[in-house]
Amino acid sequence: MAPHPHQADIHRTIDAVWRMESARGIAGLVHIVRDVGLAEELAQDALVAALEKWPEDGVPDNPGAWLMTTARNRAIDRLRHLKLREEKHLQVAWELEQMQEEAARRHEQLLDDAVGDDVLRLMFIACHPVLPQESRVALTLRLLGGLETGEIARAFLANEATVAQRIVRAKRTLAEAGVPFEIPRREELPERLAAVLGVIYLVFNEGYAATAGDDWIRPALCEEAMRLGRVLAGLMPEEPEVHGLVALMELQASRLHARTTPDGRPVLLMDQDRSRWDRLLIGRGLAALERAERLADPPGPYTLQAAIAACHARALTAAETDWARIVALYDALLRCLPSPVVALNRAVAVSMAAGPEAALPLVDALLDEPKLSSYHPLPSVRGDLLFRLGRLHEARAEFERAAGLTANARERELLVARAARCLEMAAAAG
């Protein structure tokens, strides 16, 4: 046993261990009891036991194994004492005892491999298509991120009771649907993997550019998404889009420190101090991108977006950005992922490569797109193009419209300031 630190230090240690080990523990328990809700409950029981015992006995040498063993013992006790009539529950209890005995005999590396497989299965369960998207996100952060319900609610500016209900309903839905604890069959894998990647990237994006609230970025969410992405890359090393997503997140996260001023105001990409970009994250992102491109033929949407991010990462100054290559990459992205949002981003790249006059017709063609009717970047981009063309009154109207559509306070301040700047310049020009 480790020496007895202060009780507050013990609690911080328990919290850190839970964040690192809860997914492995819950995944191992789901493999045994075949019920996500029961598995999480048993893991929570083990956590309560740690909070009771570790301050007195000290932190175990292998805290993750202690939690897993305790949870397995609780599972055995639970199944023994519940008055369940179905024979299969008795069989599960017997299997638990056998597994516990076998665990002591198995090599540690083999155990790690088995748990890794279980974590992968848990990812596919949490992101199962039978669940709505918001439930997939909440359940993923709960089961795989070790976040408490209140933390998830605060991260997404949602009501805690609403998030709690989503998690409860998600676990009930999975149980009622009889979702198997397995990796999808080969023919199902692309769709199911896309759902997992989509959830991870949604979490990242909410951290990178918060849709609502007072903060423009929430780095903790980016960190959690990158951690999940790295775990998935380790579990599925031959899947190019997994590495493509990891590369995309690493490259975008490299800019986080430069994306805001010290008081939290947004700093746009072309105005950022690139010396503040994280070169370690850029190196890791470029390595992941190289691996994705080596495995992919042709490259998928995450790999293409990572390649676009790499163009920015490789440019030491904004003026050195290879906008022609970015336009070509957006062309490829539009072919494999037709989307008005991608088309709008391509128009921005065209404006940088060929000027605002070349891009404005492309943006205008998107004005009647229903999916962009409440999408504030559309008037924001159009306002920027009009500003660069000297059409200041029109630009001001677009910035004001964008400010009215965004729910993020920091971004609204930026857009209002740009509208005011248009007014000042127009007045100065007479």
Automatic annotation (TrEMBL):
<dbReference type="GO" id="GO:0016987">
    <property type="term" value="F:sigma factor activity"/>
</dbReference>
<dbReference type="GO" id="GO:0003677">
    <property type="term" value="F:DNA binding"/>
</dbReference>
<feature type="domain" description="RNA polymerase sigma-70 region 2">
    <location>
        <begin position="31"/>
        <end position="82"/>
    </location>
</feature>
<dbReference type="Pfam" id="PF20239">
    <property type="entry name" value="DUF6596"/>
</dbReference>
<feature type="domain" description="RNA polymerase sigma factor 70 region 4 type 2">
    <location>
        <begin position="123"/>
        <end position="174"/>
    </location>
</feature>
<dbReference type="InterPro" id="IPR036388">
    <property type="entry name" value="WH-like_DNA-bd_sf"/>
</dbReference>
<dbReference type="Pfam" id="PF08281">
    <property type="entry name" value="Sigma70_r4_2"/>
</dbReference>
<dbReference type="InterPro" id="IPR013324">
    <property type="entry name" value="RNA_pol_sigma_r3/r4-like"/>
</dbReference>
<dbReference type="InterPro" id="IPR007627">
    <property type="entry name" value="RNA_pol_sigma70_r2"/>
</dbReference>
<protein>
    <submittedName>
        <fullName>RNA polymerase subunit sigma-24</fullName>
    </submittedName>
</protein>
<dbReference type="InterPro" id="IPR013325">
    <property type="entry name" value="RNA_pol_sigma_r2"/>
</dbReference>
<dbReference type="InterPro" id="IPR046531">
    <property type="entry name" value="DUF6596"/>
</dbReference>
<dbReference type="Pfam" id="PF04542">
    <property type="entry name" value="Sigma70_r2"/>
</dbReference>
<dbReference type="GO" id="GO:0006352">
    <property type="term" value="P:DNA-templated transcription initiation"/>
</dbReference>
<dbReference type="InterPro" id="IPR013249">
    <property type="entry name" value="RNA_pol_sigma70_r4_t2"/>
</dbReference>
<feature type="domain" description="DUF6596">
    <location>
        <begin position="192"/>
        <end position="292"/>
    </location>
</feature>
